[in-house]
């Protein structure tokens, strides 16, 4: 079984990474893991020239190959901090480069449908503000759920720790520990 891990943490001391690392280690006991670290990956923003190429059937081979591996993954884990009410732009650009017709999604005369075989996705995040999953101000999870619909990603679970920028060091440690505990529970049947 294969797991595709998208690491969109940008700092070595990332609080999100501190939650994700033990969960990935645990999942590594059951899954073959491919990790894509987005910090420094330099995926291009999808603009007119890339769209022109795609319209003419031109996609860089390395992106098509990666999108195929992503689509073939049994599980996906995303680790990304809460930035500007969503997640880092590097993650959005990655999604745009992996959203390839007849690889991660397809369509017929009436609708789009997902081509990914992923049955479960785990989204791991930390938020500096006191904004919870499902709050209208939190736009990362709704986007990931919408992308999950397009790509056919299955069950989407979220592990988060909130209000991290306004907590004492002791509170931060407790929140990270609690998020790891919740994540480990999810890992049991992930």
Q: What order do the helices and strands follow?
A: EHEHHEHEEEHEH
- Could you list the spans in which at least 5 consecutive residues all have pLDDT below 50? none
Give the averaged pLDDT, no decimals: 97
Q: In which range does the helix fraction lie? A: 25-40%
Query: Any idea what the radius of gyration is?
Result: 17 Å
Organism: Candidatus Cryptobacteroides gallistercoris
Domain Flavodoxin-like fold: 1-181
Pfam families: Flavodoxin_2 (PF02525)
Protein name: NAD(P)H-dependent oxidoreductase
Overall description:
There is one protein chain. The protein has six helices and seven strands; from the N terminus they run βαβααβαβββαβα. The strands form two sheets. Strands 2-1-3-6-7 form a five-stranded parallel beta sheet, sandwiched between helices. It has a two-stranded antiparallel ribbon with strand order 4-5. It is of the alpha/beta class and 190 residues long. Helix content is 39%, strand content 19%. It has helices at 15-27, 48-55, 61-72, 89-98, 140-151, 169-188, and strands at 2-7, 32-37, 75-79, 105-107, 112-114, 120-126, 155-161. The mean pLDDT is 97. Helix 1 (15-27) packs parallel to helix 6.
């Amino acid at each position: 079984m294969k797991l595709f891990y998208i690491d969109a943490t940008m700092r070595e001391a990332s609080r999100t990474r501190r939650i994700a690392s033990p969960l990935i280690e645990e999942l590594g006991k059951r899954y073959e893991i491919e990790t894509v670290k987005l910090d420094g990956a330099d995926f291009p923003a999808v603009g007119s020239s890339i769209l022109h190429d795609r319209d003419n059937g031109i996609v860089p081979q390395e992106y098509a190959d990666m999108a195929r591996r992503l689509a073939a993954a049994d599980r996906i884990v995303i680790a990304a901090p809460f930035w500007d009410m969503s997640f880092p732009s590097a993650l959005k650009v990655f999604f745009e480069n992996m959203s390839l017709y007849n690889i991660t999604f397809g369509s017929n005369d009436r609708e789009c449908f997902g081509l990914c075989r992923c049955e479960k996705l785990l989204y791991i995040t930390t938020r500096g503000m006191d904004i919870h999953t499902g709050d209208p101000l939190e736009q990362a999870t709704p986007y990931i759920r919408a992308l999950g619909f397009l790509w056919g990603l299955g069950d989407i679970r979220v592990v988060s720790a909130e209000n991290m920028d306004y907590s004492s060091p002791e509170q931060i440690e407790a929140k990270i520990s609690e998020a790891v505990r919740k994540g480990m529970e999810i890992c049991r049947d992930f």
